[in-house]
Amino acid sequence: MSRWRAVGDVLLRRAVELAILLFAISTLLFFLLRLSGDPAAVLAGEEADPATVALIAERYGLDRPLIVQYLQYLASTLLLDFGESLRGGLPAIWMVLDRLGSTLLLSFLALATTIAIAVPLGAWLGMRPDAAERKVVNGGVYVMQGIPGYIVGLILIQVFVVELRWLTSIGISSWTSWILPSLTLASFLVPKMVRVLAANVSEALREDYIRTARACGATEREILWRHAVPNALLGATALIGTQFAFLMSGALVTEWIFSWPGFGALLIESVDRLDFPVVQAAVFVIAFLVFAVNAVTDVAFRLIDPRLREQRP
Amino acid sequence: MTVGTPARPRGLSLRRLRFWREGGSGRWMLLAGLAVVLLLAIATAASLLAPPPGAFAGSLMERWKAPLEAGYLLGTDQLGRPLLARVLAGMPWSLGIALTAALISVGLGTLAGLVAAWVPGFTRRAILRLVDTVIAFPSLVIAVTVIAVLGRGFWPLALTLGLATWPIAARVVYAEAMSVARRDYVLAAQLAGVGGTTILVTHVLPALRPTLLVMLAFTFADMLIAESALSFLGLGVPLTAPSWGNMLSESREYLVEAPWMMLVPAGAIVLAVVALNLVGDGVAAISRRRARDLA
Amino acid sequence: MSGATTDTVLAIEDLRIGFPLADGGVFNAVDGVSLAIARGEILGLVGESGSGKSMLALATLGLVPRPGRVVGGRIAVLGEPVTGAPEKRLRALRGGRLGMVFQDPMTGLNPVRSVGSILSESIRRHQGLDKAEALDLAEAALKAVGIPAPRARLAAYPHQLSGGLRQRVMIALALVNNPAVIVADEPTTALDATIQAQILDLLRTRLSRAGGLLITHDLGVAAEICDRIAVIYHGRLVETGPAAEVLSRPVHPYTAGLIAAAPRFDRARPRLNPIPGQPPGPVAERAGCSFRPRCAHAGEACGQAPALEPVGGAAEHRAACWNPLFRPVREVRT
User: Fold this and answer.
1) C257-275 confidence digits (pLDDT tens)
2) In the predicted model, is pLDDT for residue B103 greater than 90?
3) Residue range C228-251, pLDDT digits in tens
4) Mutate to test the interface with A, among B25, B130, B133 (most CBs of A within 10 A)
5) Where is average pLDDT lowest: A44-58, A167-181, C216-230?
6) Nearest to C110 by CA among A222, A228, A300
């Protein structure tokens, strides 16, 4: 059936992109690492003695010609073998996959929070964008868009943890420590989402089919939620796909602020300690996640919008 | 059909005044633009002249003074250094890195976008595919990874951020250049036998000016956020530099004693970012309106 | 207004729809229009764009777009007032006893809703049925407007249907709750000529079971299916009467001009006879007869606004003109 063929095409296109991306990242890392000095010294860590450095050089084949090293490196990368963490000696890929669940939980909570805030607010703003009180709110959203998410996080901690002592801000152990990270990560997406939704809703409300719905006796609430908002959401679904990369950037910072045990925090720790195997594994997993989310939203978009369903990508 | 760019509007000052009279986004843009120019002037002054007194040496006797307390406009930090001086001293770092990164990003993006628009076939497809791929990847992750190798500091940071974000500008410039290339006066120039490079320089680039200005403003704002985020993560400028992100990072330890240590640099970042967004939106709105008036 | 009998399904009396002007005044887009439609009758309201005819259609639903509003007169459906009615009563009326067909079926149907869900939403709202019953009724409604394989079409989305089929869906939507009055605003204007004829045929049979108000700029369309015709110019009725009578013996120079301006295909080289001048802009001055500047018969008296009065001849044939024509059309303009 043509619908599934279109889905297949989308997946294929995304897979090609993923392959290009992974190839580009590994190549970039490989050469950057060698350009920046003796990779064996870097891999061994700052305090390593010359014997260790030599051992590392031999273990990773760093004494062989560059092109041989590169091909070997690509081959092992293909097998998801990034080597062992310089701390603790666990395979790097395990350490990253171990953190996958936490990051996915945080992303999911943030996405749900974003939708819960942005959809009603966007619909309300889009209903009558010229009303005075909505213009003020719109201005507030505009300023919110200029506030970096980690500042939102700090302010939330200041208010709810330091001043009010209502919530905890560290770790993942109890649900009270889930709220602030979710809100913080959501704050990366909410302002843009609200603005796009408001614009889409106010545009949809001017369409002829809204007049038709009114002529059939629909209430204002039905007009908004059953006719205008579903159309407005189509555009917003596409936005979630393109903004996922941004969400991952935000997860990096959010996890750091709240000591959330996801791979964003792991990545930053590992960069800080120059634990390259883990850095590389983390980047690969993030790339794969981005690929998966984009593929899913592409497919979802096609399934939601009846007009796109039969179209080839 | 005439060959040549549309007539240039006369007199720079007259045009600016018109934005004011048109009101709305134009007025906001003008105010925000002035604020941005002022910020950049202060940043330049601060980097050329000596850093403001007290930015690097304070007295513990004076620590954690609240804003307006004991004559400190914005209060002091945990070492008794006035935050006003610190914010000013941080400008060359924060604004400087952000502007440099934005110039690299928009410059590279423009180059890639124009090449993609001008060279059809494999080159175009390759560039567009690369752009799609890099855009889908979290730029902060790219930046963090590259910094792991390059190390910290002004130039590594500016380069890294520029390299991680150029595809956004490339995509916009490509789309815009393609639409300009289809305009009558470009076709006319081509029919008249004008060379490709000449057309690019005399016709396409001038038409792209508003777009580039908009991109520059938005990218500047994004880079400011990205730089401060990296510094906040401890992966940005050297820890001793008073960049706004570093100040925020330090403030985390003292949220209980001195919340203003967080609020002052946060306010500086937000004000600068909102001003830049206003400039970008204002220019975009005006060039849209102009395009509509011409049509 | 005469003729408002027990058989009247839609009565409009002295309707005025005003729009505020920049200088603080009010412009009446519809200015003192009175109409009545009896059960089983189709009335054609004919006028150029900007004559106020679409505004009148929206007013029957209580949907005059802001900042316009009904500033005078009354509208009643089956004796129940529309003007001044609370929103809740209006919603019960819209799509219930009053069905509406809009001009453009391409943009008039929600692109993300299936045909079945659009129809059943209206059925359930007005008849309070459950989902399965509503879908059965929706299927019947599609069948009644001549859509083949109606059950399968319920799952279709608007973009999957041709323009003609979409307009049939719009008509089904207007008819689905057995309305007493159906208002059709330029229902065939956006369609191909061959489809137009089919849709007109459908409208003729379906509208005549209730009462129909057909709004069109095309006298040919009105001639095709209407029992009576009302000609509107610049917000005012200039001539009303039985369709055959108005078309064969137009009394108002504007009506005569419209008939003469229509393309004819019964001559080897048809000549168009356009009405000279431009239709008045929305805020043009309204002292006297609005058609005066374009009228070949204008005289002294036309500085005063004429009333809509019987012209003799067939019953109910009325015109608002100081210098009415009584000759056959073809001889009016030589």
Assistant:
1) 888 877 666 655 556 677 7
2) yes
3) 999 998 888 888 888 888 888 888
4) B133
5) A44-58
6) A228
Helices (H), A128-173: 132-145, 149-156
What pLDDT, on the 0 to 100 scale, is given for residue C272?
Answer: 64
The predicted structure's pLDDT at residue A57: 73
- Chain C residue numbers with beta carbons less than 8 Å from the beta carbon of A227 are 110, 113
Strand partners for C81 = C76
Query: Count of alpha carbons within 13 Å of C271, Cβ hemisphere only?
Result: 4
Query: Partners for A (CB, 8 Å, 3+ pairs)?
Result: B, C
Position A12 pLDDT exceeds 80: yes
Helix B25-48 crosses helix B83-118 at what angle (to 10 degrees)? 110
Cis peptide upstream of residue C179 (ω within 30 degrees of 0): no
Residue reference for tokens 């306010």: B267
* Residues in chain B closer than 8 A to A29 (CB atoms): 145, 149
pLDDT(C323) > 70: yes
What is the helix (H) or strand (E) element at residue C291, kind and residue range?
none
Q: Give pLDDT, residue B170.
A: 92
Inspect the structure and tell me whether chains C and B have 3 or more CB pairs less than 8 Å apart. no
Decide: helix, strand or coil at residue B64: coil
CA–CA gap between residue A178 and residue A13 (Å, rounded) = 36
Nearest alpha-carbon partner for A83 in A302, A270, A287, A272: A270
Instruction: Give B200-205 contacts, CB < 8 A, sequence gap 24+.
Output: B200/B114, B200/B118, B202/B5, B203/B5, B204/B114, B204/B177, B204/B180
Asked if B138 and A252 count as a contact pair (C-beta separation under 8 A), the reply is: yes
According to DSSP, the residues that pair with C183 across neighbouring strands are C100, C213
CA distance C333 to C330: 7
**Cα–Cα dist C43/C227, whole Å:** 6
- Lookup result for tokens 């890392």: A29
* Average pLDDT score over residue span B186-200: 79
Tokens at B74, concatenated: 């914005």
pTM for the structure as a whole: 0.79
Q: Among C12, C55, B247, B66, which Cα is nearest to A154's? A: B247
Structure tokens at B225: 């956020």
- The tokens 């991680």 sit on which residue? B164
Query: What is the pLDDT at residue A113?
Result: 92
